Amino acid sequence: MRNAEQTALLIALLVKRSNERRVRVSETTVKVLSGRQRLRSAFVVNVSEQLASNHGLCMIEIDIGGFGIFHFKSLEGAKSATVKRLFSDGEKKLLRDDQDFDWEAVNREIGYRKDGEDFEDTNEEI
């Protein structure tokens, strides 16, 4: 059984050899790399922290199962999202006055429902 630091090193090697800026890795792959039959959440968090601090990689769990891994450097050229550019004057006023938003409308716009069902996605993939 390998520790989190060793597992993170092997995941970093896997990502490097893929020659991709972002990859998906299955739980099975992480189990093989770690030499474990079960992935405990504390271990996954520790691996994620090791990847971030030692290898410049972000590992997040994804809805379809497994993990998404990308280089932090890949965000350096990303376009900024700002309140000034993306929020209406009315929304900016709500923020300045510390007033509540129409949270149901916000959830609808981002495609989130509390019952677990997705609204129809009208946003482009990031």
Structure, explained:
This protein is about 45% helix and about 10% strand. It has two domains: about 5-75, Orthogonal Bundle (Arc Repressor Mutant, subunit A), CATH 1.10.10; about 80-110, no CATH class. Strands 1-3-2 form a three-stranded antiparallel sheet. With about 130 residues, it is mainly α. The longest helix is centred in the N-terminal third of the chain and has 15 residues, at about 5-20.
Write a concise keyword list for the protein shown above.
single chain; mainly alpha; Arc Repressor Mutant, subunit A; about 130 residues; 3 strands; three-stranded antiparallel sheet; 2 domains; disordered C terminus
Strand order of the largest sheet: 1-3-2
Note the run of SSEs as H and E. Answer: HEHHEEHHH
On the 0 to 100 scale, the average pLDDT is 89
- The CATH class of the largest domain is identified as Mainly Alpha
pLDDT < 50 runs, ≥5 residues: 121-126
Q: Sheet with the most strands?
A: 3 strands, antiparallel
Overall number of strands: 3
What is the correct CATH architecture of the largest domain? Orthogonal Bundle
SS-derived structural category: mainly alpha
Domain count, please report it: 2
Could you please say which CATH topology of the largest domain applies here? Arc Repressor Mutant, subunit A
Helical amount: 40-55%
- Kindly report how far apart the N and C termini lie: 36 Å
Computed CA radius of gyration, to the nearest angstrom: 19 Å
Strand content: 5-15%
Count of individual helical segments: 6
Global shape: elongated
